[in-house]
Design a protein that fits this description.
Blueprint lengths: L1 H46 L7 E7 L9 E9 L4 E6 L33 H16 L5 E6 H8 L5 E3 L2 E3 L1 H13 L6 H5 L3 H16 L3 H14 L4 E2 L12 E8 L9 E13 L2 E12 L11 E8 L9 E7 L4 E11 L4 E5 L7 E7 L5 E3 L4 E3 L2 E7 L4 E5 L1 E3 L7 E7 L6 H4 L7 E7 L3 E13 L12 E7 L5 E7 L8 E11 L10 E4 L3
Parallel strand pairs: 1-4, 8-14, 9-15
Antiparallel strand pairs: 1-2, 2-3, 4-7, 5-6, 8-11, 9-10, 10-13, 11-12, 14-19, 15-18, 16-20, 17-18, 21-22, 22-25, 23-26, 24-25, 26-27
Helix pairs in contact: 1-7
Amino acid sequence: MKKIREFFRRKKQKAKIFQARTIWKIVGLIILLGVIYVFYFTRDFIKAGYWQGKTLIILTNEAEARPCGGFVTAFGVISILPPHIQLSDTYALKDFDFGIAPEMLRNVSPKQKFWDLGTTSDLSQCAQKFQNAYTQVTNEPIHHVVLLDVGTLESIFDLFSPVKINRNIIETSDFFPYLSRSVSDIDRHDEVTLDNRKSPMKYIAKKMILGTIANPTLLPRIMNVIHQRMKIGNVFATDISPHITPEPNDFAMIEWNLGGAKSSRYLRKNIIIQGRELRPKEWTFNVTFQANHLGGFDEPLSQEWKGAFELKFPQFLQSESVVIETEIFPGQNFEQSFSFDYKGTLPYVSLFRPRSQQLFADVTLSLFPQQTFRNTTFFKRENIGYFMGEVIDYRRIFEWDIEKDTVAPFITLHKIIRRENIKPEISQKFPKSNLLTEIHLSEEVSLADNFSATLTDRDFINSAVSEHPKFVEKELLENKRTLILGFYQDEIQTDERFYIELEGILDNFGNEIKKQKRTVIDRR
């Protein structure tokens, strides 16, 4: 009996050991998968050396749009080894100037401040300017720069939402209004209050960082948000992000909010591009830039927008950029239109969206008829291509292949007409004719040197008279699709039918009409 009890005791002990080992294996596997998951989303940062050295984080507010993203709200310096986090609001460097302000900013400030350094849409140059300015003031070496926008911060905040701040429960939908109103609702004659008006942003950022440390499982999700925003250019990281800047053949609408508070958030910007090929390789472009203020008066969120739009055109249109200063009140619109002509092959059309600025587009491209779009990056119907919607990526490229016209023109209408039914200036061009025919063709055409036209009497009504009217005169009308032909006949045959045959008619791609018999009836 004692041996039996000992046997079961040992078996139970072994089961406990096996169970403990199994649990630790599962825990180890979960940790390993977590490390792999984190590494997957941080691999680019690891490869670029962000785990060593210092990284300058610049938080820009796209609700106060500028070419580099927006007015600087806060900044910070982070290092992994050794661990270090330092966050500051933008006015921590208010006492420092960084040269004469560019012309666009001089109505705001004669000297360029740290928060006004985002004056270029070339994000590499923009990041370099912030890095140089920070190092100039602090003598602190910076190895990497990350440009972060409020939209990304909102998406990250959503992982922590709701958050309790100063007895207020803040949801993601309250994030931007709460911050904006907190910053604006201050004693503007108190220096301490004024200097710390951006502190709510700093406080929230610290709370999210501490929350991530307390719950490391949030890190992969945070990195996924950053990864997705990097793909569209709203987050820019030096040594990782591609070179993001307007290219020579881009259309672009670059917003400069210069005193319009947060009203960029309510500005719906739209580019309308209508490209039409009038002749093979001869294009006309009508381009319209629009900005609609959708907000009402709700300070500090929505008020009169003040600033400028930098309108950029492709190099192939041989037009310089245009800067238009304007004011847009809530409920009002801004619109500016331009027209261009272009000769040559059009390889593509592209739109550049400045970092974190929302942009919509309405693009239509019309090839010369009888051609067909193939392999397009937009919707198409035969020779018509179109796109309508928001430009999500920092560059939207419309590319295509063209299947050339191989279809010969054909007759769509053919009839004998009365002379008094055509314009006098056309009628006078047929002095030798007493029988006129009107021919409509499927597309624009030209007449070759070997052009010929024949009428053959079918003897359908009047078999007693068999006469084939003689072709004597022709006129291709201005639309290039209507042809008037003049014939001479000795005797009019009312209601008689004739075969008409044409040759030597070419379309714009050299396809020649097929010679075939069509019936016309003399009902004069």
